[in-house]
Amino acid sequence: MTRRLAYFVMGFVVWMLLVYTLHYQEVIAGAGVALLTAAFFGQYLPVKPSRLLNPVRWFWLLVYIPVFSYMCLKCNIDVALRVLSPGLQIRPGIVKIRTSLKTEIARVFLANSITLTPGTMTVELKDDVLYIHWIEVGSSDMATASKAIIGPFEYFLARIFD
Amino acid sequence: MTILIVILSFGAFFCLYRALQGPSIPDRAIAVDIMTVIFSSITALMALKYKLAYLIDLSIALAIISFVGTLALAKYLEGRSLDD
Amino acid sequence: MIEVLSWVSLCTGVGFTLLGCIGLVRFPDLYNRMQAATKCVTLGTCGIMLGIFLKTGFCALGVKALVCALFVLITVPVAAHALARGSLIFGVKLWKGTVKDEFTDDRGGESIIDDK
Predict the structure, then answer these.
(1) From residue C59, how far is each of A17, A20, B51, B61, C69 by CA, in Å?
(2) Which of A31, A54, A159, B29 is the most buried (most CB within 10 A)?
(3) Per the domain annotation, does C92 fall within a domain?
(4) Contacts of residue B66 in chain C, CB cutoff 8 Å?
């Protein structure tokens, strides 16, 4: 039940941001639609509702955003230089790494973060193993590759979601 | 502002080249996906230029629709049905 | 000040989008193209939306632009991941300079690295 309530609140907030007015018709329509979606899909919410109210996790999320933006910008400049350099400066390959994150949602966020940062793209996520397409293979050893790719993210994501 | 829109259109033109030329089906799919995202940002810029707030709704809808289309094609390539 | 910041954001976004598209044309195989295209275009779109938000402030247009940036930030990597996995299983060839492919090795199929 709390799962459905959390889902309803989140859906309603997204709706209010999308219409961005306080006209009573929009509010009633949004409440109706959010109620329906919560009734049908509320049980699939991948986070425990009690965790959503923990301020420490929100604080770490706020810290994570600038760190992630910095990494993202760095990676994009790197890829842009590869695009512009004459001759192809790439040495691609698919490597396998292991993560220590426990929950499903944390792993999904890790996969998305990897896809958006330095020359790496998640290809497959199976339990705690991730297959990564790397544009410049640095090391084929699993432990070293894991440290190079997911080192900075795992620290923050463990504090946000686990 | 007009110059930015023209530059983005050149980007969309490169994507169109890849969509026509691409040797395999996923090549074309990713080109069309990226092209739709570029169109969504062009629409947002036009909303800013002509002060028409409703165009940004179109931009959100374009971004979501391209996502659903690409996902459906990916499922088809894996040889699975759409419901697992 | 905010005006200047918003123009910087818009121009960076457009520049990265254009670079991503050039990468889409230049790189040799599907997976590398996907790398360049998804990363640069995602950052580019987020930059453009952030620029619009900074230009308009807290009105309907700006807030909706931020929501759109959030959607793009979540959906484009997921779409790229699903498409990459699908085409690896489908058997689209990797470029001939590819160093290793542990995914196909672990699945037990024959190598799909291009040998031409």
Answers:
(1) 11, 8, 12, 19, 16
(2) B29
(3) no
(4) 79
User: Global pTM?
Assistant: 0.87
Instruction: Judge if A77 and A134 occupy the same domain.
Output: yes
Give the count of domains, chain A: 2
CA dihedral C39, C42, C47, C49 (to 10 degrees): 180
| pLDDT tens by residue, B34-52 | 999 999 999 999 999 998 8
- List of chain C residues whose C-beta atoms are within 8 Å of the C-beta of residue B44: 48-49, 52, 65, 68
Residues of C numbered 66-85 whose beta carbons fall under 8 angstroms of chain B's beta carbons: which are they?
Answer: 67-68, 71-72, 75-76, 78-80, 82-83, 85
Task: Report chain B's C-alpha Rg in angstroms.
Answer: 15
**CA distance linking residue B28 with residue B5, whole number of Å:** 23
**Residue A18 is nearest to which of C16, C38, C64, comparing CB atoms?**
C64
This complex has an ipTM of 0.86
